[in-house]
Amino acid sequence: MTQPMIQFDKVLKAYGALQVLKDLDFTVDKGEVVSIIGPSGSGKTTVLRVLMTLEPIQGGTMYVDGEPLNRMQANGELVDASAAHIRRIRSKIGMVFQSFNLFPHMTALENCNESPIYTQGKTKAEATEESMRLLDMVGLADKAGHYPSQLSGGQQQRVAIARTLAMHPEVLLFDEPTSALDPEMVGEVLEVIRELARSGNYTILLVTHQMGFAREVSDRVCFFDGGRMVEQGLPDDLFGNPQNERLQQFLSKVLEAG
Ligand SMILES: Nc1ncnc2c1ncn2[C@@H]1O[C@H](COP(=O)(O)OP(=O)(O)OP(=O)(O)O)[C@@H](O)[C@H]1O
After folding, report:
1. pLDDT tens per residue, range 179-237
2. Mean pLDDT lowest for which of 12-21, 30-39, 111-120, 237-246?
3. How far is the CA of 23 from the centre of ligand 1 (A)?
4. pLDDT at residue 257 tops 80
5. Residues 4, 62: contact at Cβ < 8 Å?
6. Is the predicted pLDDT of residue 39 greater than 80, yes or no?
7. What is the distance between the alpha carbons of residues 121 and 140, in angstroms, rounded to a whole number?
8. CB 251 within 8 A of CB 211
9. How is the chain split into domains, by residue range?
10. Which ligand 1 atom is at minimum distance from the Cα of 209?
11. Residues near ligand 1 with C-beta < 6 Å?
12. What angle do CA 235, 11, 51 make, to 5 degrees?
């Protein structure tokens, strides 16, 4: 059996008394494209944020490519991970946020190649060449010199994707990547994600409210409710023949809303 690329083993995440992830067990295989759907507050974004180590967890272990992320081996024992250990494992993961998070004082090109975390081990010329190739890939080579304020939301999100790819991640996390966009810009961003999913080069975990897109691009869709994964399956099975009552209710509400 192949080793999962991402594994959550009884992960517990709480904000004070509010338990957001409740002993979550969840895996994503290497090269798999998995979407997480579910009602607001069910813990979808939290799954991505704890994996990015943007939030601490209170219990359990997360593994990336077989290595524990928040724990490490020391003298034959699993102990809390050091900052260096976390940085090394985390460098395999790139995240695209709902709100782009570009540096406003940097051009599109500089956003991709000016930060040391994006350019490790490359000369300036190599970093620039690669960033230009990535901007071209997301259809924005002609906007390389533009600042975020001179770009539409859809263009900013495509720069954010190019910037994430510049880190050479093996895993891509997308947190509702189109929900901050005007409707006419959604398609151009989905097209880029669709291409990345089709390329087979990445393990992708996508949190989305766009059921049609989740159904189209995913190898597997997971339904979260109340901090647990309550149903998962092939997209056509999960959407076409949902078993869990909460999932049935959720899907009929989403369909009603159009
Ligand atoms: N920093 C925080 N402090 C306190 N509570 C938080 C924090 N971040 C998230 N929560 C709470 O954790 C729960 C899960 O949040 P999360 O963002 O993971 O949900 P979600 O399923 O992604 O929801 P949505 O679809 O609305 O984005 C919610 O009840 C939320 O209010």
Report:
1. 999 889 999 999 999 999 999 999 999 999 999 999 999 999 999 999 999 999 999 99
2. 111-120
3. 16
4. no
5. no
6. yes
7. 25
8. yes
9. 98-168
10. 25
11. 15, 18, 20, 38, 40-46
12. 70
Query: What is the C-alpha separation between 253 and 258, in angstroms, rounded?
Result: 9
Taking each helix axis from N to C end, the angle separating 153-165 and 124-137, rounded to the nearest 10 degrees, works out to: 130
Per residue, the 3-state secondary structure of the chain, as one string, reads CCCEEEEEEEEEEEECCEEEEEEEEEEEECCCEEEEECCCCCCHHHHHHHHCCCCCCCEEEEEECCEECCEEEECCEEEECCHHHHHHHHCCEEEECCCCCCCCCCCHHHHHHCCHHHHCCCCHHHHHHHHHHHHHHCCCHHHCCCCHHHCCHHHHHHHHHHHHHCCCCCEEEEECCCCCCCHHHHHHHHHHHHHHHHHCCCEEEEECCCHHHHHHHCCEEEEEECCEEEEEECHHHHHHCCCCHHHHHHHHHHHHHC
Atom of ligand 1 nearest to the CA of 176: 27
Instruction: Indicate whether this complex's ipTM tops 0.90.
Output: yes
Q: Which one of 15, 24, 178, 222 would you pick to mutate in the ligand 1 pocket, going by the greatest count of ligand atoms within 8 A of its CB?
A: 15
Mean per-residue pLDDT over the chain, rounded: 91
pLDDT (mean) for 100-118: 84
CA angle 107–160–67, rounded 5-degree value: 130
pTM of this prediction?
Answer: 0.93
